[in-house]
Design a protein that fits this description.
This is DUF6798 domain-containing protein. It holds the Pfam family DUF6798. Keywords: Membrane, Transmembrane, Transmembrane helix. The protein has helices at about 5-20, 30-40, 50-55, 60-70, 75-100, 105-115, 135-150, 155-165, 170-185, 195-215, 230-240, 250-270, 270-295, 300, 310-325, 335-350, 355-365, 380-400, 415-425, 440-450, 470-480, 500-515, 520-530; strands at about 20-25, 125, 125-130, 405-410, 430-435, 455, 535-540, 550, 555-560. By secondary structure, it is mainly alpha-helical. Strand 5, helix 20 (about 440-450) and strand 6 form a beta-alpha-beta unit. Helix 2 packs across helix 4 (about 60-70), helix 8 runs antiparallel to helix 9 (about 170-185) and helix 16 runs antiparallel to helix 17.
Amino acid sequence: MSWGFRLAVLALFTCTWFVINGYSFGIVDHAIHLGFLLRELDPSLLKGDPLIEAAANHPSFFWTLQVPLVRHVPVEVLYAVVHIASVALMLAGTSALARALYPGRYSEWVATVAMLSVLIPRSYAGIPMLDELVLNRTVSLGPLLFALVLGVKRRYGAAFVLTGLVFLIHPTTAIHAAILLWFAALFDREKRLAIVTGPLLCMLAASPLLVPMLRQGAAAGVPFPPPDEWVLLTRVLVSWHHYPRDWTAVVWLQLLVPLVVLGLSLRAHRSRPVEAYLCGVAFTCVLGVLGTEVLHLPTALHLHLLEVLRFVPYLAAVCGAAWLLETWPAPGERKLPGVAAALLYLGFSTVQLEVSFPAMLAVFLLRPAARTPPRPMGLRWPVALGVIAAPLILAIRIYYFKVPPNFLPRLDMYKGWRMMAWSEQHLPKDALVVLPPFFHEWDLAFRFGAKRATFTTYKDGAEGSFSLAFMLDWKQRMEALCGCQPFDVLATRDNGGKTWEERVNAMRAVLKQGYQNSDAARLRGLGSRYGATHAVFEATDPAHPEFTLLYSDDEYRLYQLTP
């Protein structure tokens, strides 16, 4: 297949990814990341915002590298371009991994089917394969898949150097990839010296960020053993990343599907690089579980060890594609085993357990045989497959699951934009604004949209994973917002018949109701104790005539707390 044709397929699948998944800007983790970018652009912005003052706990050159670009290109435009490139690199990395693992006349088919299967990013154990917005982990994923490709080709030096360079953008995911590469080198007898030289090269490439991190004690923000309060709050805020004991049965079943696909494909066609990578995944997960659930080791949580699972679905996509082609029936053979294999792979590709588990049972009963695939069809078929798949998957998503993709590349498309734009124009630059302490798109976007510091939000608490001082301050601020002790009820494992998730959601409801019922004394206390100058309430919340109303529309009211 010519490079021109490959690029055409890649462009088609990149467009398909956006058609299926959409694109967002300014919300979710952007609540944190865009604040860091604003501080890089103008150190005088967001003064007094506790999250931004703790930016050192989130070491990365990601925002520093954006500064010269943002001075010439609007952030919204830059991020859209970056995300298009990130999606293309992810798909290209998946394709390259398929060709490296399964070279030969059928490699293009394996690559094409593998790319098709990652068009819908799934979450395993709360860990998304690829987010629908620009983050340092989304930018890092494609290059790290290429690092795994270099590992398959036994070019360990180059692989570790690339991983070290990615460390400058997203240290944790780079460390996970380095562990996988280390196991690949360990299993390679002829190049086992790479288990020593590889990490050294990786650290050398990462040294511009790694050295300052070590010098400043970036991982020393939480003592060992950590206080029970820190363990509880991290469990409340980020249990899906770090605490498997709180995962639901559905989460475990979703994780089982790619592992079964990998098991079936490796039984049919063994791959030592993949087996080495999976050993690295297992090793890292064991460290993660022991570190967080048993030892309560802060470093284990800082490294986000369980997020190594992000690589598993990509390995399953590639190996499963090869297994599917090997089991697809040739003319005259039984059709049912191949159909069962295809349904299992389809279920994995869409995380539909109602498809995956019946298909899994059928596969084990029918035992599709692996053999050399039949002669591949013409090159037009991969393209036709993508053209057909995109509208089909989109239609299923919209009409069956009722989840149309969001295309929200600008903040002025969100609720609350009018209030944020007014705040940027009229509030003092040193204002500290109190927002409702719960998840809304607009309050997640407020820092960037209004260019003003915030008192704190519920989302900010996750950054307390890296700093005990920040976590305790965040907890006090949340209690001050609601005038209650919302976290005390979660301090015991006695669930009263409710799951952990249900209890956390009930706690969030208490926070929300407490803030909505704020009285004048509590709001004045936020000003005298923390320096809060303004407060925002929804238009449907009780009015506060005791304070000066600066802005009001059909969505929100903004009050001045200080004279």
